[in-house]
Design brief:
Distance between the termini: 44 Å
Helix content: 25-40%
Radius of gyration: 25 Å
Number of helices: 14
Largest sheet: 8 strands, parallel, barrel
Length: 550
């Protein structure tokens, strides 16, 4: 039976209200405490940034998608997909050069011959059409704030254009379009313009510094100037610091920390894609997956993510990562499970690249598709809900400062996005299966080769045999209940079966969420895996994700 229009509108209204209440509310501004971003005005509770990038730095200098949907509806879509924050990009020239920023939206689109986009804005966001580009940008920030979405303002480029290439003139201080004085002037203007908008919680000084002219000496000099400029104008803002080499390298901070008198406001950022520091990302297809995952995780940890660890940690914001959301890119698909496992275990703040399913105009092409976009081409709905479901664990908070709860673990299966849980009441047969991680069982695993214990019980996980569901047992000292991480990726969890055969947890069984044990993919005799084996092990990848939530 078809739903009547009035009934449908009532349900849509109820859904919208529920989505708005679902956005976790925090008092602003934000601050930092050790590795955490926290709620400054309340009790210092953690605020996890789960952001999506939304861009406004291309030639039209207009936030993308306003020809497809009213901006308020786009904000609702952002919330409905589980994001609480937008990393909103901008180009320096839009704010520093009146000939750029003072153009109206209609003039900018018309000047590029984008008549259909202009008509779309007139239909969906008519109040923006005759605003200047700068005023239209601010209007989008205002709508995001009205919907409870936090905003990180990201200086992406100087001259409006696609980013990023080695020789595009936008890469490093002193290049053709990237003049330090003008850059500082732009930061000054933006910090002033948005200083009374509490939803603007952070400013990122510059996206993906790169190219043959980059040096550490100049980096320290200019980053200090930029950070001081922003903080002096708006001391409430988090100041986000990017590194070198397309925002993948902060390793030089190990020898020479960035010393600034900006207490509790500095956040460091980095980017990670399947192709980061690998031409076209080919190694994800050529190397054994356990090995490439181990190698790339170590590369990212040692080059950037280390800033959130150690004796003096700082907040670390993974401000760009992304994949082809069509699900057809084998390189990205292999990368994603490795990536999600690492980020979930570390419980990082992050921003997905990217929101837009299409562009007004990019690299001389009108209306091209963005296959990395979380929305479809027409901005109607998520392009791939299954991938969003796999990423759901990243949107949730698992670790908080000053918790009174002892650490426990979730057992996470990256390929499905589920966590291991136990079905069955006491006295009944227990079933081990995958479920929503918010509903998952809590486990302890104190040593490699030790038991995996179900918290609050005297039971532990036990391997039985090939293709047989894992079970629970009171015998936690038997070989069947002693579990090791046996691969280079540290993502295979293995014990031995009742016949003495090595078995790994396996999340693949037809039409079921059951967790079984099977012969370890790429297994050797003993505890190890064949490093030269090219079989796909993703169904057997599991990650211990620590948590201290009540």
């Amino acid at each position: 039976m078809k739903m009547k229009t009035k009934e449908r509108k009532i349900l849509e209204t109820i859904l919208l209200v529920s989505l708005l209440f679902a956005v976790e509310c925090h008092s602003l501004p934000l601050s930092t405490s050790g590795r955490w971003v926290v709620d400054e005005e309340a009790s210092g509770e953690r605020v996890k940034l789960a952001c999506v990038n939304w861009i406004s730095h291309l030639q039209p200098m207009l936030v993308e998608g306003l020809h497809q949907r009213p901006v308020g509806e786009i904000a609702d879509l952002i919330i409905s997909m589980g994001f609480n924050c937008v990393r909103l990009t901008w180009a320096t020239y839009m704010f520093t050069r009146p000939s750029y920023g003072n153009r109206t939206v209609a003039e900018s689109l018309g000047g590029l011959g984008l008549s259909l986009a202009k008509e779309g804005v007139a239909k969906n966001n008519p109040e923006l059409l005759n605003l200047s580009l700068v005023d239209a940008y601010e209007a989008v920030v205002d709508v995001l704030g009205q919907h409870g979405v936090m905003v990180v303002l990201d200086n992406h480029v100087s001259k409006p254009k696609w980013c990023c290439a080695e020789g595009d003139g936008n890469g490093f201080f002193g290049e053709k379009y990237f003049r330090p004085k003008e850059w500082l002037h732009g930061l000054t203007i933006v910090a002033n313009r948005f200083k009374d908008k509490s939803q603007v919680v952070a400013m990122s000084m510059r996206n993906e510094l790169r190219g043959p002219n980059q040096t550490e000496h100049v980096w320290y000099k200019q980053i200090r100037k930029g950070a001081t400029t922003i903080h002096s104008i708006n001391p409430n803002l988090l100041v986000v610091v990017s590194g070198l080499e397309f925002d993948t390298d902060l390793s030089f901070l190990k020898q020479k920390p960035l010393k600034l008198k900006i207490p509790n406001k500095l956040v460091f950022e980095a980017h990670w894609y399947s192709f980061s520091a690998i031409p076209q990302g080919v190694e994800w297809l050529k190397q054994p997956l356990n090995q490439i995952c181990a190698n790339r995780t170590e590369w990212f940890e040692s080059g950037a993510a280390f800033v959130g660890t150690g004796s003096n940690p700082a907040p670390f914001f993974l401000s760009e990562f992304g994949i082809d959301f069509r699900g057809v890119n084998a390189r990205d698909n292999r990368f994603l499970s490795c990536f999600i496992a690492f980020v979930a275990q570390r419980d990082l703040d992050w921003a997905l690249w990217t929101l837009q399913g299409s562009y007004y105009y990019k690299d001389g092409v009108v209306g091209p598709e963005e296959t990395y976009g979380v929305l479809d081409y027409n901005w109607d709905k998520p392009r791939n809900p299954k991938i969003l479901k796999r990423m759901r664990i990243l949107q949730l908070t698992w670790q908080v400062p000053n918790s009174y709860v002892s650490k426990y673990h979730l057992i996470f299966h990256p390929r499905s996005g589920r966590c291991v849980s136990v079905k069955g009441e006491e006295g009944q047969q227990h079933q081990i299966h995958g479920t929503d991680c918010k509903k998952a069982s809590r486990w302890s695993h104190d040593e490699n080769g030790g038991a995996i214990r179900l918290m609050g019980s005297g039971l532990c996980l036990k391997a039985v045999g090939e293709g047989v569901p894992a079970t629970l047992s009171t015998d936690c000292s038997s070989p069947q209940a002693r579990w090791k991480l046996i691969s280079a990726s540290k993502l295979h969890i293995a014990a031995v079966g009742e016949k003495g055969e090595p078995l790994c947890l396996d999340g693949k069984i037809s039409n079921s969420s059951s967790i079984v044990t099977r012969k370890c993919i790429c297994s050797l005799h003993g505890d190890g895996l064949d490093l030269n084996c090219h079989k796909n092990p993703l169904r057997q990848w599991f990650k211990f994700v620590p948590s201290n939530l009540p």
